[in-house]
Amino acid sequence: MASAPSARLLRVGLAGVGRFGQLHAGVLADLPGVELAALADPDPVCLARVADRHGVETRYGDALELIADDSLDAVVLATPDDQHGPQARAALARGRHLFVEKPLAASWQDARELQRLAVMAGVTLQTGLILRYEPSHRWLQQQIAAGAFGELVSIRARRNCSRTSFAAIADRIHTVHRTLIHDIDLVLWLSRSRVTSVMAMEVRQGDHLAPQGCFALLRLANGAVAQLESSWTVPAQAPANVLTDHWQGCIDAELAVVGSQRTARLQGLQTPLQVWGDQGQQHPDLTLWPETGGRVFGALRDQLADFTTCLRRGEPSAVAGLNDAVESLRIAEALITAGQLGEVVRLDSGAL
């Protein structure tokens, strides 16, 4: 089993250096007490470029080869969504501490199995719940937990993404697992209540795995209701707020919370910085993964810092609880079923 050293550098391997994995690489290469010791990706050109940028000598063409490297203390998976489950099982079987980008697995049952394997191996398993590390979301959650909002009445979340991004995920992952999973997690985190039943509707244009739109209602055990919306309909002319060297688009996100004492509205990925040019307007997000001076900051950095700190302390994250990550997948599956059948799906029994 991999140890969690407190004095020496924590040796971390990163599998997947695509558009989001490159941000992970930037953070891991810069975190105090951490050595980005190995990278893996099937694209040799991309792998060489990222490895050269961060001075990583150990390189693999396959994630499983990296996972088998016994010099590593921990592994971060930023690979395609459908690969998370098999790769995570392999890492846990070898006793690696593990961070998996969302979704944790392809199904709720697979996620529960990974949780069981992590407990048996005595290692840390954490998944990407990045909004829990964003300052505005964290402040709101703390206020709700402190009782400042009174009794929770409703939560409403919108997460609509660039139309041009749909083709990349259309036949690879369901919209619920790709985008709505963030808001399912927010409901659990903000309400601290279980979901008892769901209903959902889909909008489909073409015969793809992913619908262009998902619209859901969730009933919570505490009596509150959550309304969630996610689609791939934002036009190309919308102000770009997701901006990196290899990724540009718009996420139109909003969160509204209504309590018996207070209400709140949070515009996601908003910034006071606005840029106009021949290519249109840009509103660069400065909270999730801003890149400044060749370094990556924001919630992504805080999330990975939390993961590595937890390894050193030998304790689970107090922010990104694994139970909620697993439960989110159970709710996601219920929403997909509800959307397909046009029926209310109840989760009271604890199993689908």
Characteristic terms for this protein:
Dihydrodipicolinate Reductase, domain 2; 33% helix; 352 residues; seven-stranded mixed beta sheet; 19 strands; six-stranded parallel beta sheet; 10 helices; alpha/beta; 2 domains; Rossmann fold
List the helices and strands and how they pair.
Blueprint: E1 10-15, H1 21-28, E2 34-40, H2 44-54, E3 58-60, H3 63-67, E4 74-77, H4 84-93, E5 97-100, H5 108-121, E6 125-127, H6 135-145, E7 152-162, H7 166-169, H8 175-191, E8 195-203, E9 213-220, E10 225-234, E11 242-244, E12 247-249, E13 251-259, E14 263-268, E15 275-277, E16 280-282, E17 291-292, E18 295-296, H9 298-313, H10 322-341, E19 345-346
Oligomer: single chain
What Rg, in angstroms, do the CA atoms define? 20 Å
The helical percent reads 25-40%
The run of helices and strands is: EHEHEHEHEHEHEHHEEEEEEEEEEEHHE
Q: What is the count of distinct domains?
A: 2
Mean pLDDT: 94
Anisotropy-based shape:
globular
What is the fourth-level CATH superfamily of the largest domain? Dihydrodipicolinate Reductase, domain 2
> Spatial order of the strands in the main sheet?
14-13-7-10-9-8-19
Instruction: Name the beta content range.
Output: 25-35%
